[in-house]
Amino acid sequence: MGFFERVKYYDEFKLKALKMYTDLNQNYADGDLKALKNIVLDKMYYRLKFELKTREDYGNKYYWKYHGLVDDPKYQCIRYYDTGLAQLIIKLHTKQCIVVFDKEGKLISGDPKEIKNIVQYVVFQRKVGEKGDWVIYGYYNPEAPTKLFKFDLDKNKLISVV
User: Fold this and answer.
1) Backbone φ/ψ region at 124: left (φ over 0), alpha (ψ -120 to 50), beta
2) Among 45, 51, 93, 125, who pairs with 71 as Cys (CB 3.0-4.6 Å)?
3) Could you state, in order of their start, the residue ranges of all structural domains in the chain?
4) Mitochondrion among the record's keywords (predicted)?
């Protein structure tokens, strides 16, 4: 693939990534496990499945609606590993409405009239050299601590190295 084809591919992928992200949120709100399985990796799928089961046990209902972009999707990181995996981190700045109702239909979280600006960093992954679609690996939190630790065998504990 030449330079211009790559640029076009990555520009087009940002739109596909946004579609996958909105599908993920809508399918999660709808409790559609079958649809979720097609767009997320197994580890994330099982976490979402557990969350949906817990939500079902409480009888809660979610409402989610996408209201457009605040800013265009932006690549934050493109990684390739020796294992043949490629990952893309895309910053999505969107307008959304998220509301939760209890089993009686009483509002317990959110406001149906309030549209919020949400920034999320979504990690997409695929195997390079194989036919297959990108899937959502999970989310990245750029504000998470980046402090590094190592295990000190003599003291039998983690110690900071930064």
Assistant:
1) beta
2) 93
3) 3-144
4) yes
Distance CA 96, CA 39 (A): 20
Q: What is the DSSP letter of 30?
A: H
Token look-up 């600006």 returns 117
Q: Binning pLDDT at 50, 70 and 90, where does residue 148 land?
A: low
66, 96 contact by CB (below 8 A): yes
The torsion angles phi and psi of 91, rounded to 5 degrees, stand at: -85, 120
| Cα–Cα distance for residue pair 97/106, rounded to 1 Å | 17
CATH number of 3-144: 3.10.450.240
Which of the four pLDDT bands, split at 50, 70 and 90, describes residue 162? very low
Q: For residue 136, with 0-12 CB atoms within 10 Å meaning exposed, 13-18 middle and 19 or more buried, which class applies?
A: buried
Q: Are strands 149-152 and 85-101 parallel, antiparallel or unpaired?
A: unpaired
- How many CB atoms sit inside 10 A of residue 22's CB? 16
Q: Cβ(75)–Cβ(89) under 8 Å? A: yes
Structure tokens at 99: 């509301």
Q: What is the pTM of this model?
A: 0.83
